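Worked Example 4.2. Consider the chain below.
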Amino acid sequence: MDTSHELAPPLTDLLYAMAEEGADAETTNLQEDVWAGLLRDGADVTRRLTEQIDVNRAVARDEIDAEDWAALGDAFGIIVRRDNRRNKVTARAFADEEDLLAEWEATISATVELCTRITG
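Applying the procedure from the previous section yields the following structure tokens:
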């Protein structure tokens, strides 16, 4: 059973801004064209995003998919990725701690592997 949920814009952009300001952990390659951040505790992330939305009003709550919002609130953590080569930001919420940590370790390994291939 898949315990993760791919999140859609505009939530991905909001999460990227939050992760860039203060992720619990982050990784990047040497060229800094691939970056990933880990945000723990989806309930806390949801609370902080709600406050941000209420203050900034850049995004209305009804612009965020209800399933995405629910998955975010139930998440043990979220992995946010930015790929500057493709100009793309993605985010995935994980309801299971083991799945989250396994994906985070795979993300770190992929970043290191990309650095090794490039510098080589």
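Residues 34 and 83 are 5 Å apart (CA to CA). Helices lie at 11-22, 42-56, 66-74, 97-119. Compare this with Example 4.1 before moving on.
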